[in-house]
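Q: Joint fold for the lines below.
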Amino acid sequence: MTLPALERRVVVCVGCGGVGKTTVAAAIALEAARAGRRALVLTIDPARRLADALGVESLGNQPEPLPREALTALGVPAEGSLSALMLDMKRTFDDLVARFAESDAARDRVLANPIYRHVSDALAGSVEYSAMEKVYELSRSDAYDTLVVDTPPSQHALDFLDAPERLLEFLDSRLVQLWIHPAMAAGRLGFRWFGWGSRRALGLIERITGIGFLEDVSEFLMAFEHMSEGFRARAREVRALMRGPEAAFVLVASPESGSVEQAQRFLERLEAGDVRVAGIVANRVRVWPNGSPAGVEATDPTDAARLAHALAEQEGESFPAARAARAAIDAAARYAALVRRDATALAALREHAEKRGSFFRVVPELFDDVHDLSSLERIASSLAQRTHTAEDSMTATREPGANRRERRGTASA
Amino acid sequence: MNSDPVRSSLGRPDRSSLGYASLRAERLAARPLESRRLVIVTGKGGTGKTAVAAALALGAAATGRRVLVAAVDPDARLAALLGPRPAPLGYEPARVRENVWVCHIEPFEALGEYLGLQLRTRRLVDPVLRQRAFRQLLLASPGWRELITLGKVWHLEQLRDGARPRYDLIVVDAPATGHGLAFLNVPRVVASAVRTGPLRHQTERVEALIEDHARTLLLPVALAEELPVRETVELVTRARELGVALDRVVVNAVQEPPYPDDLADLDRRLAALPDDAPLGELPPPRVLAACGAMLSARAELNRRYVAQLAEQTGLPTATLPYLRDGLRGPDDAAQLSAALLAPLGAPA
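A: Joint structure:
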């Protein structure tokens, strides 16, 4: 298999915001489809970008299959397929409440509770939890071989993975228990004071702030309590799936300043949390068109003269060949410096991958935003290390430059 | 949005119908960034809003103003960018160089301070604030963090040494855009939920500060790329609805074209040269051409998005140069200050 992670049932793309996680997730799913698997990419990116790139009308909470013709054109065999789904966190969480509620009345009570309406987005990582929940649900169905998950940009790498635990921890916490079973808690050592102290303090806070939300909170927690067994069992299964052999984590990073450091902190946290990272994808990397940019920065003046000569021969007497040669060499040197900078910035991540025996893939910067399947295909090719040279991307680069020249031509005419 | 039930229920004027008036107010309010009292820097994650906050602080401090940078999300780099004295980013403002202080508005600290001031004692407050479950409960409570953070900003703005404000300029390194919008909306939401009492009163004062065009400015930071541009346009629209003053959009990390204007198509001419042209140690012509083409494409993409941003927000743009190695310290930040504080409309 071209990308080792594709053998897993669930591929989770993690990384900081703004590194192109959504695009990479889609490209991994495409690569899985090309390997003959039935792939589904789950995104949390509400922008239309992915839907646009995939050429589907819109994405919803149900999988949307890509048209067969498009897949065939991208080299996806008949047995492979690619679908996309945009996670509706809120809906997923509501569905969960509906599933575990003991009665319709209990369900309605929770769904209508003002605190639930506010906190179902924020409660102890429920955003991440809903995503995990959906992944789990899909992983139990036979409809897909590979699920690629694009995670929400979180500050802490483990937010996503720890979501079930945090939800459980919250439900189990003393304060919540106290709210639900004040009488029972009061019997235990030390809880009497705790109960009195915190209730009194909360009462004071309520009086000062004038916010009457404590009642709503109590009601919400009581209603939720009845469901917690279901949640608990479910959270354990989700946890087992994510930390088990069926799941692979792929870290997406970009070489931009600050991003690499964040990626490293991310890696450390993941490993500290016993998550094995299957590989790293460096996205939007500036690479040299052929091999390495040796000798561009320190150009021999006679070489500059040679280039000027060649240009003069081609463009004629009136062309400012010497100045043009200088500009061409300066631009190459400027680009070479960027290429070196990116390589240096990524060295630590590359080493890390080598040391762990995980893969490291470089996706060259594309010079237009990823709007269509062909650019997605180019990213997939880089991931699979099919040779797609920078000169290919140069051909793809031509368009915007050409437009500019036309516009300038018109302006000066 | 027109159908904001909060505003109409409170009998407030519906500002969205005053779009033109508020646009005009924005223009009138356009004046040097460093002469504001409060500048709230916000933008999508990764756009470099912390760098912009640092650059603004250094630029303003250089004009003799006393500047406090208040970070909402702790970013360890902030103190290093402002340097030269390394200071841990703490709740209490720490002086990092002449005229520059930095602090992190940690919400639980701010809540403790606030409740302590209200109750005139922290004895009861602190044990409760330390409880993990209580913290989680509060973290889950909507708007609370934003409100207490803005309350602290208001408090910092009120500080006086004698008759003079303790800080001439407060630069808030605000949360990333998605949260940034919620951040500014909170006083209004709270005002709708809390009808009476001290909190209502304090919230109104915070709201008055945020909406005061003479004192407060929202400074959005964008990158010249698709998603940051889209988010910034949404941010500006929303900020106008909220009545917050805006006078420019900062576009960070804008790359310049590789060739002089009259040689803009040089890459194409290079690509037309024979591949075996004798160029000594130089890379072959197609590689030279590829380098130029890639740099041109990036610069063109940047140019297009800067234009789009200006058109869709109706605001002037202040473009900051792309720094290859990112922002490494006060020297780099000072380089950005010059571009940031240049008068609007002046060529970059």
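Q: Anything notable?
A: The CA atoms of residues 13 and 250 of chain A lie 5 Å apart. Chain A touches chain B through 84 residues (CB under 8 Å).
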